[in-house]
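Lab notes, practical 5.
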Amino acid sequence: MQLEQHLDGVRRAVESFTGSATTAGLGADVPTTPDWDVRRLLAHQGLVHRWATGNVLGEQVDPDAVEQEGLASADPVAWLRDGADRLLTAIESAPDDLQAMVFLADAPTPKRFWARRQCHETTIHAVDALSAALGRHPRAEDTWISRDLALDGIDELLTGFMPRPRCQLRSDEPTAIAVVPDDADRRWTVTVTQRPPTTVREASPEDADVVICGSAVALYLTLWNRSDELDGTALDLWAEGARVTWA
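Output from the prediction step:
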């Protein structure tokens, strides 16, 4: 996906997010993020947008203070929109040779990195808001997510997040997990050992120890631990070790 597609992804996710949050209500539980309600979800996403904007603009952001601002906002839905608008403006206005922090393996240049990262950050948390409106974990057909966005998000997760030292996905015995969308030609193999996982953008399912297969959108939601649409013993290992957290 290109820069403008990622920015459009942020816009669509914000629309879904705010619509679902309004439907569910600020006090509704969020099935996909236990112990959170919708107000907390809005505050978290608004914090992340403002933190990302700070990174793009070279500004210092106090995460705790910003999150408290979101929690105390009289209209946290509007507060989320304001932060998203400023984020989009900052990325669009940034020079192509922007110098800024990136924090994933195999990361693109900073301007494209922040567009991509916030596209998927906002999309996944918009799925959380959708789960609050539905009262359950969403399935692929419940969402607005396109196949191409899902494939891009799977790639970011598997090649960007999983190889980082802080990833907790481990196995006593080396285990090759093939991730195989059944509606696209993209493939990945994640090799899990007692060290941080390694990922390659190819897969031979017949040589893998475990194969996770489904539509691109179903895989995207499942690998981000946002859906119970797919099941299997491999996903127990994945759900335990492959969680991505703020801190």
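Observations recorded by the TA: DSSP finds eight helices and four strands in the chain. The mean pLDDT is 93.
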